[in-house]
Amino acid sequence: MSLATDIAPHLPYLRRYARALTGSQNHGDAFVRAALEAIVSAPDAFPRDVDPRLGLYKTFHAIWSSANLEIEGEEGDAASDFERIAQNRLASITPLSRQALLLTAMEGFTNEDAGYLIDAPAADVASLVNEALAEIERQTATRVLIIEDEPIIAMDIEGIVRDLGHEVVGIAVTRDEAVQMATDERPGLVLADIQLADDSSGIDAVKDILQNFSVPVIFITAFPERLLTGERPEPTFLITKPFQRSTVKAAISQALFFNSTASFG
C-alpha cells in the first residue's frame, strides 16, 4: 500500500487538529500543506516504524515546531479579532501544554503517543494537559446553548458544561427552538448536534444563528462525514459520538480560548 493511501484517511483529522492548535483555518491548513510538501519531497524520511497516523502527525509537528514562533508572532491587516485574542492568550500557555491537551483529549492519542509526537516523556503528558486546562478555565467563562434532541446526551453535556463553571441558558431540540433561544439569550458558546428531533438540521440552525451574531460553535455528532468533507470550510471544533467527557471539556476550553466562530457554507 502506498504512503499516500496510508495517510489519506487521517488528513481531515489533522486539519481539525491544526485549526484547533493555531486558532485559524488558514494558518492550520498552511501547516498541513507544508507537512504534505515535506512528505512528498522526502518520502524516505517519513517515520515508517510507527502507525501512519502517528507518522503524519509527527511530520506535522516537525513543521509546527520549526515555524510556529513566526506564525504566532504575525500581525497584520488580515488578522481577525479572534486571532488577536487567541494570540494574547497563547502567550500565557506553553506550546507543549496546548499540544498535549489537543492530542490526548481531542485527537484521542494515548499519553505515550502524545509524548512521542511532542518529544516529551509520557509521564509528563498528563501534567501538561492539566496545566493547559487549568489556565484556559481561569481565562474563560460564558453562557452556553445546547442543541441536542436526545435527553440523556443533553443532560450529560449540561453536566460537563456546568462542571467547567459555565452557565447553560437552554437546551433546544429543534432548529426553530435553537434559533429562538439563541436570539433571546445571546449565548457565548453553542454546542450543536446535527440531526434534531423534528428531522431539522443542527447545521441549518447554526447557520441561522450565525447570521444574527458571532458565537463559537462545537458540533457533537454521530455524522462527522457531513462536516469533514474537505469540500467547504469546516468548523474548527467537531466531536464524534459516542464521546468522552474529556474530549468535550477540551473542545469547550479551546473554543472559548480562541473565541472563534465556526464558519462554513
Describe this structure in words.
The protein folds into 2 domains: 3-137, Up-down Bundle (Butyryl-CoA Dehydrogenase, subunit A, domain 3), CATH 1.20.140; 140-258, 3-Layer(aba) Sandwich (Rossmann fold), CATH 3.40.50. It has 12 helices and 5 strands. The protein has helices spanning 3-7, 11-22, 25-41, 52-72, 81-90, 95-106, 111-118, 122-139, 151-163, 175-185, 202-212, 245-258, and strands spanning 143-147, 167-172, 189-192, 217-221, 237-240. The chain has a 5-stranded parallel beta sheet, with helices on both faces. Helix 6 packs across helix 12 and helix 8 (122-139) crosses helix 12 (245-258). The radius of gyration is 18 Å and the shape is globular. Residues 69-79 and 260-265 have low confidence and may be disordered.
Structure described in brief:
This protein is of the alpha/beta class.
- Helix fraction, binned, reads 55-70%
CATH class identity of the largest domain: Mainly Alpha
Tell me the overall shape. Answer: globular
Radius of gyration: 18 Å
**Distinct helical segment count:** 12
Mean pLDDT, to the nearest integer, reads 83
How many beta-strand runs?
A: 5
In the CATH classification, which architecture of the largest domain applies?
Up-down Bundle
Strand order of the largest sheet: 2-1-3-4-5
| Computed structural class | alpha/beta
* Topology pattern, helix = H, strand = E: HHHHHHHHEHEHEHEEH
- How many domains make up the 3D coordinates? 2
